[in-house]
Amino acid sequence: MPVPDPKGEALRPVPPASAAPDRVEESRATGTPQGLKAALTELLGADKVLTGVSDLVRYASDASPYRFVPQAVVLPESAQDVVRLLAYARRERRHLVFRAAGTSLNGQAQGEDILVDVRRHFSGVEVEADGARARILPGTVLARANATLARHGRVLGPDPASAVACTVGGVVANNASGMAAGTSRTSYRTVTSMTVVLPSGTLVDTGDPDADAALAAAEPELCQGLLDLRDEIEADEELTARIRAKHAIKNTNGYRLDAFLDAETPAQILRGLMVGSQGTLGFVAEAVFETLPIRAAATAALLFFPTLPAAAAAVPLFNQAGAEAVELMDGNTLRAAVGVPEVPGEWAALPRETTALLVEFRAADDTELAAYERAAVRVCDDLGLVTPVPSADNAFTRDPARIAGLWRIRNAFVAAVGSARPSGTTLITEDFAVPPELLADACAELLELQERHGFDAAVAGHAAHGNLHFLLTFDAADPADVERYAAFMDDFCHTVVERFDGSLKAEHGTGRNIAPFLELEWGAKATALMWRVKRLLDPDGVLAPGVVLDLDPRGHLRGLKTIPAIEAVADACIECGFCEPTCPSRDLTTTPRQRIVLRREMLRQPPGSPVLQALLDAYGYDAVDTCAGDSTCALACPVGIDTGAMMRDFRHAGHSRTEERVAASVATHWKAAERAARAAVAAADAVRDRVGDRPLTAGTGLARRAVRPDLIPEWLPEIPGAAPRLPRTEKDGATAVYYPACVNRVFGVPATRYGSLPQAVVSVSARAGRPVWIPDDVTGTCCATIWHSKGYLAGNAVMANRIVEAAWLWTGGGRLPIVVDASSCTLGLARDVVPYLSDANRELHGELTVIDSVVWAAEHLLPRLTVTDTVASAVLHPTCSMRHLGDTGALETVARACAREVVVPDDAGCCAFAGDRGMLHEELTEAATRPEAEEVAARGYDAYLSANRMCELGMEHATGEAYESVLIALDRATRGLPVTHAAPAPDARDTTTAVTPD
User: Of 476, 900, 957, 962, which is least surrounded by CB within 10 A?
Assistant: First the structure.
């Protein structure tokens, strides 16, 4: 286990002026009560039970405005584990709440007793009938499922904006829809069967031909009860008509009573009831979807209107023209979107009344698409569109990149508006629907309602389906502000129901926020039937109390979470969870959202709180040490929140002055340090050659225990020998400066492969007629990433300024580009050094052209090369840095020149090796790479390729396969020699060798 950080006090926050009303009470400081902990451990095993107060707090928040701290968190591995949990809950009269992604906006993924995390061990997609069907486990991220189906030209029907993070289980449980799903492509319409664990523990596969017989045998009273309810509803013509009318528009409020009208048998009624039941009627262990064909041809435009009612009035016209999606965004939404990368800054000055429609048409081919475009132009001609800022061009485009950019703006709605809220306020997301023809009137009513209660909400939504979302903020710590919100909600719900006969929840599920208003919308008779459904399936009330049905008229005001202000880099976070699927530590310790959630709880606590101390004791390892620092969370976050940067700041805060001075001294004397590192690697390699890896592993293990695991790297068998010396090159005639990263000057290639990366870059560049020059004085320089990632500011500044000064001289003042052969170092030199430069060196940096070696190969070398030898297949590991740089396309381009089949695993993600972090915390890389490694191991490949030496080591450690740079593969593929007989590079212990054009 990790040794506690002796400088953990550096993480202690400045105490708040007063403790928050919703803080975790002191009595919870020890975590799960001992009796419950012992019982759950005996039931499931210790590795499936989380009991520390840090664990409970990090699971207490989701994307909603609610916060409930569970008594325990469990991670079942199978449906049988769920059966055991349900039996325990019934016996001990306890409650369970299922949670997967935690992206629900109304508190459905929270509970006050036992929280059941079904994301970690319930993930997987099985494609059937060449993609026409998909059998999916509930913890599977929706975008991940669609990535698998895309290979078959298919896609799932539901398309919520949270697809990059939400799971299939949550989509089914909430009957989530999205931009284009409407009422016809939802889970209710496209899930053909499912496997359900009922609260009784009975397992039902509704797709089994014998499902009804098996269910009747196991649950005779349940079967008869379902049939009795069906007959009762069918006999009531008024109620039947009411149910049909309510589901003619989008509606996820309450249970799907139309399941009794759409199905004949108990098993099929059960299938319909489970969709949208929000975890209150059972656990969906697997769902089988009918998929849809991908309509690949697309055109889209962002059209600007002077007012919200004007935009709403145009929606039916685009529906009639055949639009796939019509999304509305009001002025507040558009102005907040300036926080989204690549959105023009001038949008911040848009008039408040301005509203835009994002209109997209999709077609099977370009001919059909052209017809849609002509129809769209005819509609636009009579709309009175405005151009409030120069970038508002009101033009349709087929450019996939531009269309993706428009959708990024729309999908960032909640996070963008939330990030712009006043610090310390709580964000509420409401979701309702009216008949589409009444949308304009509903918008006008909504604006009046907001003004009456003193709110200035942001409005957006799926206008094509009469479905709007609006966001508003209030101070959950201020009772008067909570009452203002309560009055607004009461007026809002009565307006939607009585004025428009609308749905109080169109696609987000009832949740805690609308449960008290269920009867207002549905009436006493239908609501009573929903209670009977609940009691029939869950007679002991085990599952998710208060999530769909709640008799407390003020239940929606209980558990509202305060949002204490934290470090500026992360204060805008609304806890949406979009960052979690990309986080390499998500299955080991904490995620970016949870790091922020824990920090906020620290700020809720008073000085001397035992809860605060317990959180601080865990935070050093759980949050700071096991953060890879790759900042892919910033890429996933709609508004670019970089939790990795916050962790690097915390690392810096934990450094003593002596440590900072030592780090700066190492940077100053990096030439000697680099040579010492290479010599150490060579010596270790010699030891390994004689006696194997065991003494090296034992030696580093002893050192780690004696000092601190976060300071001493662990020896891994995959660590290669020392790199050969750099090849000789000529400055005269060079078309670029080649900067071999220090990692490639220290470490060689895997023992099972031929060639070295510097030799390959020099050789293949010369072969293409684009020779490169390696300066004689590269030793002793670095991109500064080593210091940057560890939070050593002084050392970072020393090296950042040194490398920029050197690069400016090497390139003749920026005349030549500088090619860098490690993607993380490219990112470091191109971007990360800038904040640490002097004013003068910042000007020099602006004159540099930094090119990653893979981009150099794709754009400057490949057009001049002849590929003579390719392998049949290659699997590719894109690095995090390449994602930051936008260079993954270049990586695939080069790989496709080397192999006839190139596969990027659907689960490819950060390997978490992160320089040396994978050697400091081996468990981090093992957890991060497990899904990708399992996918890679499912078949064999002729080549295993990436673009960063340390990432290659991490993937080799995970898969047992020798990963190498795609540049080495390109060198082999263009040599004109048989691949299996490529000439070996000089031995790592040899001296230099000259490389000349072939």
Answer: 900
